Structures are given as C-alpha cells and as structure tokens.
Amino acid sequence: MTLERTAQTVEGVRRRRLQLSLMVNFFLLMALYSGVLGVLLPNQIAALDPANKANNLALLFAVTSVFSTLTTPIAGALSDRTRSRWGRRSPWIAIASVIGSICLFGVSWMTSFWALMVFWVMATVAYNSMQPAMTTVIADRFPPEARGVVSGIVGAGMTAGLTAGTVVAGYLAGAQVMAYALFALAIAASCLVFVVINRESSSADLPARPFSWIAFAKGFWISPKEHPDFAWAFAGRFTVYMGYQAIAAYMLYILRDYIGLSDGDSNIAIANMAILTLICLVASSLVSGWLSDRYQRRKPFVFGASLIMGCAMLAPLLLPNMTGMWIYAGIIGLGYGMFMSIDMALMTQVLPQSTEGDEGKDLGVLTTAVNIPQIISPVMAAVLLYLFDGDYSVIFIAAVIFVFGSALCVMPIRSVR
C-alpha cells in the first residue's frame, strides 16, 4: 500500500505530537457528536413537538445520515486528489471544520424542526468532509506495526469524547446557545491548530490524477469477492454500530419513558452515567491498544469487544431500572472502548492494496459502515416502538442481536491476526 506519497512517516517528537493532536481532535469531534446528537438535539426536538419527538428524532437521524453517507467517501476521495502547498488532508480539516461550526451554532437559534434540520444537515456535511481526511492521517504517517498504539490513543480520545460530550451537554442542556457554541468553537479551534503544528508535506508538485465522474463513482465499489477481508470488516463494523446506535440515539427517551425519570433528572442521569462510562472507556482503550500491538493481534480484541457490548445491553432488559442502566454504562464502556481502539487499526490493515493513493477514499467507504446505521437504526427503533406500543425493551433485544452478530463477522478475516 502506498502510504508515503505526500507525508513521510513521523518519528520521535513529531510522532508524539501528532498522536496527541489526533487524540484531541477526535476527542472533541466525538464529544460534539455525542453531546449534540445524544442530548441537545433530542431536548430541542422534544421541546418543539413533544408528541412526535421519537418520530422526528428518527427522521432527523435518517436524513442527515444519508448526507453523511454520501459525503464521507466523496470527501475522502477528493482529499486523495487535492493538490496544495498545505498537502492533501490539511485543507479539508481546516476549512470544513470552520464551516461546520458556523452551521452548528446556527442550529441553536432555530425555532422550527425543519429549520433545525437544514442547519444540522449543513453542519453534518461539513464535519463529514473533515473526518475522513483526519482519519487518513493515520494511514499516511504511521507504519502498520505502530498503528495499534496510535489507534489505542485515538480510540481513548474518541471514547472519552463520547462520554465527556454527554456530560457537558447534560449539565448545560438548560443553556442551549452556550452549549452549542462551546462545541462549535472547540472543534474549529482544535482543527486549525492541528494543521499548523502538524504541517503536512506539500502535494502541489504531485501529478494531477485523471478525473472522471464515471470512474469516480465506480471506484466506490470494492468487490467483496476480490477483497473479502475488507467486506467482512465492513460488515462487522456495520452490525456493531446498528446495535450501538439504536440505543445511543434514544438514550434520553429511554431514561424518561422506559426507566421513568423526569426531564430534568434524565439530563443529569445521562451525564452521570457517562462519567462511569468514561472511566471504563479510557482504561479499556489504552490497555487494549497496548496489548494489541504487543501481541500483534487485532481480531481477538474486536471479537471480545462485541461480546462484552452485547452483555452490557442485556442488563437493562433484566433490570429495567437505574441499577440496570448503571451496569450498562460500565460494561458498555469496557466493550466499546476496546472495540474503538482496535477497530481503527484493523480497518487500516484490510484496505485494498493501492498504487493510486486511494487510502482516503477507501477509509471513507469504511466510514459509511458507521453512517449507514445512523440512517437505519433510529428508523428501525422507531418502527419497533410503534409495533410494540412504545416498549423500549425491544430496542435492547434488537441491539443485542446485531452486536453479537458483529463478533461472527470478524472470524473470517484472514489477512489480520
């Protein structure tokens, strides 16, 4: 795989600085996603139309995720073709983050559901134009044998961000404009600093790649027959996020309508649960990444993570109260932290061999395994709630099936141990 076309592999102080910068960026991006999608938007949507909150939330996730799914691989492919003195990835990271943050701040002022959706869609498109470029930095600048460590560090940042964002949003839910502004400013500032202190080699002198819309579209099809490991990795990531997103998207409403908490108590509860998850996530991510590199194994960790996550989802079924939710919060942290820390390293090692510098596009395709569940799982959950008369336990049952299924998808992968 051609990984050193525009940026040489980093070593020493530059590597440590890049690892830390990636961790901070992904921490803030995941904090933004979890805080906005898990707390701020559900609260805002419920306030605008309480009777239709579940359906409207599902519609919002579905529409915005369609745009995310289309944007991510296209932006990844375009970043592969970008020619500038700032390199291929940096312009996308800097410009898209600023545009996304402007749109995100606009969401906080919207007083109708459809206006809110328009601004959130624009923010989502911008952030999903930035994310594949940032993810591809790992493939660009780190050798395969070192990606477990960086994946663990970045995974710890991502998982901690998912928790921290929920905590911050939960406590600031009553100060809507301030909460949105905080997330928007943080990610924009972090991305701008990132491109300055981790200067990418110029791509201006690289030969321009021929461009055809037909060839461009065909390039997004990666044959499962020719690249079975890529297909199995895609399927494993897809199914685990189908289960995880179905619960995460409705967590605030689960606490209110399944556990029986008030609106105010549910905002505090989701924040406090996130603190427990944070502790488990960080410990699991760092230890898993280190062990994965030490033994040069990826599959056992991803397999085990899926089983642990499935067990966590059983707790609220057996104990439909806050005790069950506390157990869920702790165990899901262990499983999801392990999964995220190793999954990124696994993804970079199943990419099709490329002589064209298509790593950004291919990683963008893999990212759709996260985005597509964001379309399907909330809609699936809304349909299940309708069919089972608002019984949230059916969402947990469906999630367990998907997450256990993910473990089976890892086993056929041959090129990674």
TrEMBL record:
Broad class of the protein's primary localization: membrane
UniProt domain Major facilitator superfamily (MFS) profile: residue ranges: 19-417
Topology of this chain in the membrane: Multi-pass membrane protein
Listed Pfam families: MFS_1
InterPro entries to which the protein is assigned, alphabetical: MFS, MFS_dom, MFS_trans_sf, Tet-R_TetA/multi-R_MdtG-like
Source organism superkingdom: Bacteria
Leader peptide range in chain numbering: none
TM helices/strands, residue ranges: 20-45, 57-78, 90-107, 150-172, 178-197, 230-255, 267-289, 301-319, 325-351, 363-388, 394-413
UniProt name for this protein: MFS transporter
Subcellular location: Membrane
Keywords: Membrane, Transmembrane, Transmembrane helix
Record's keyword annotation contains Aminoacyl-tRNA synthetase: no
